[in-house]
Structures are given as C-alpha cells and as structure tokens.
Amino acid sequence: MEQAYSNFALTTLAEADIHTYLITIIEKDQSISNKKRACKVLGGKVIVGLIKNKKYRKPLTSFIDSLRLSKNFRDRQLYLVTARTAFR
Predict the structure, then answer these.
(1) Averaged pLDDT, 1-21
(2) Do the beta carbons of residue 63 and residue 43 sit within 8 Å?
(3) pLDDT digits 0-9 by tens, 12-53
(4) Residue 9: left (phi > 0), alpha (psi -120 to 50), or beta?
(5) What are phi and psi of 84, to 5 degrees?
(6) What is d(CA 80, CA 26) in angstroms, rounded to the nearest whole number?
(7) How far are the Cα atoms of 7, 15, 25, 78 from residue 66, in angstroms, in the given order?
(8) Among 42, 50, 61, 62, which Cα is nearest to 15's?
(9) Is 32 exposed, middle or buried (0-12, 13-18, 19+ CB in 10 A)?
(10) Domain-by-domain residue ranges, the chain?
C-alpha cells in the first residue's frame, strides 16, 4: 500500500476508494505491526492530502474520531500514531 501512494496520484487512488482498504486493515487486522503501518500511511499520505477536500473530510474525520474516542487502548494508541504522522 505504501508504494501505491508514492507511485500514483492521490486523487486517483481516492476516487477508487483505496483508502477504505487502509481503514479496514486498521479495524480488522490481527497484527499490530500491520495496523501501525496502515496508520502511518493513512496519516502521512491520505489524511494530509484529502482532508481539504469536502468529499472526503466527513468519512476521514469520523473514522479518526472513532479511534480517538474508543474505549479500547489499542485504538487510542493507533490514533496517536496516525496523528503524529499527519502532523510531520
């Protein structure tokens, strides 16, 4: 996934809803390392590029808010990984 975001234009990948695959990995994958890698790609490539677009702002912020407000410690930790890479 990381290579896809570096090789192709972000708008092309966003129109194909590739970012939903990253969200699925974060929600359902068993491996924490895969979840952290997906969070880094989501924060560093997707959120930074798409948050300004009104079409993608609502789903992205609702997913990030669900991680931030979760009772699960792991989800809150993944929120911090995502936020840290988005602000770099």
Answers:
(1) 77
(2) no
(3) 777 777 888 888 888 888 888 888 888 888 888 888 777 777
(4) beta
(5) -65, -45
(6) 13
(7) 30, 23, 15, 11
(8) 50
(9) exposed
(10) 2-87
Residue 49 token pair: 């590029």
Phi, psi of 78 (to 5 degrees): -65, -35
List the structure tokens of 52.
Answer: 């300004």
Asked if 47 contacts 12 with a C-beta cutoff of 8 angstroms, the reply is: no
Indicate the burial class of 88 (C-beta count within 10 angstroms; 0-12, 13-18, 19 or more). Answer: exposed
Q: What's the one-letter identity of residue 88?
A: R
